[in-house]
Amino acid sequence: MGLKEVYSDGFNYTIKWDVPLTKGYKHFFLKNLAKTKITGFLSRINFGVFKSINPKEFDFILVHGYQTLTCWLILLAAKLRGVKIILRGEAIIKNTKGTKIKIFNRLIINSYLKRVDAVMYSCTGNYKYWKTFSIDEKKLFFIPCAVDNNFFIERKIFYKSRINIIKDELKLLKDDFVIIFPSRFTDRKRPFDLIEAAALSARKNLVLLFVGDGPNKNKMEKLSLQKGVRSIFTGFINQKIISKYYLISDVVAIISEYDASPKSLNEALNFNLPGIVSNMVGTAGDLVISEHNGFIVDVGDIKNISCKINQLMDDKKLLKEMSKNSGMIVKKWSLENDVKGIMNAMEYLDGEMLR
């Protein structure tokens, strides 16, 4: 997936990434017997793990989640072969109201967690989620939600001399204030909330820049016209080009009803953008600290979103300070620190094996 063209329901678009995904990495693929290969427990059925996982070649296995059959096959194979398991996930706490299904799911997840040797958390929200399962603190290691910061800084430098050309292409005026919404246009991402908030703001120089695509695009265009909100729709934009849209923006908005670790937030902070994010974004409070480099709002609080937009538009000094702070914060959320986190987990397990 991603190496070849694949249709995405969320983007309503056929995607093929324009950056190398496997170059420089020692890798191999296992045959997947699944009929459906996008999501769901049976979307990964790779019995080849039993042959691949052996202590002669590997000391540790880093597994991303527990949500597919293959994740459980990996756990079984590792336990049979004596290979240590490190689990990485990005979930955050959603609705704590109990149902029989949720209680059953938690019991299943807990049985998986008890059998792994170390657990990695990507942000404070993810840490709190793991702690609801009473995981021993010494088994928890930080692997920050990160993107390739160096890549985006290089792209920022590449496009910097083209700012005026990019603005002309988008028909932006000198005093326009641009809020970028880099996401899939699905209900979960709540793009309509941003349009409603912009309408409530009633600022003539406010422009919403919707970078992406999805099933709600036509409805979003109609609502923008109906509400008199200036909105630009770019369509799906790939990794090498998206930087030019971050560069000409003033603020990033990620106001989803649930978003464990949106990488577009990391990308935007590399362009020194303050953020308006919802309280159900997992990295809210880490990457965006309220009143420091942006604002955290309750999901669906259109009036407050509009208020924060106006505050940033009216206070240029605040906007400048928050922009500076975003650039400082994202430096710590790096691939280099991901490596350190993984190394810390392995060193801990090495020590456990010697005991």
Features:
355 residues; single chain; 2 domains; globular; six-stranded parallel beta sheet; four-stranded parallel beta sheet; 13 helices; 41% helix; Rossmann fold; alpha/beta
Task: Describe the protein's topology.
Elements: E1 6-8, E2 13-15, H1 49-52, E3 60-64, H2 69-81, E4 84-88, H3 100-113, E5 118-121, H4 124-131, E6 140-142, H5 149-160, H6 163-169, E7 177-182, H7 191-201, E8 206-211, H8 217-227, E9 230-235, H9 239-247, E10 251-254, H10 263-269, E11 275-278, E12 294-297, H11 302-314, H12 316-332, H13 335-354
Parallel strand pairs: 3-4, 4-5, 5-6, 7-8, 7-10, 8-9, 10-11, 11-12
Antiparallel strand pairs: 1-2
Helix pairs in contact: 5-9, 7-8, 7-11
**In CATH, what is the class of the largest domain?**
Alpha Beta
Number of helices: 13
Q: For the record, what is the CATH homologous superfamily label of the largest domain?
A: Glycogen Phosphorylase B
Helix- and strand-based class?
alpha/beta
* Mean pLDDT level: 94
Shape verdict: globular
Strand residues, percent: 5-15%
Largest sheet: 6 strands, parallel
Walkthrough of the structure:
It contains 13 helices and twelve strands. Helix 7 runs parallel beside helix 8. The chain starts with 5 loop residues before the first strand and ends with a helix. The protein has 355 residues and is an alpha/beta fold. The model has no long low-confidence stretch (mean pLDDT 94).
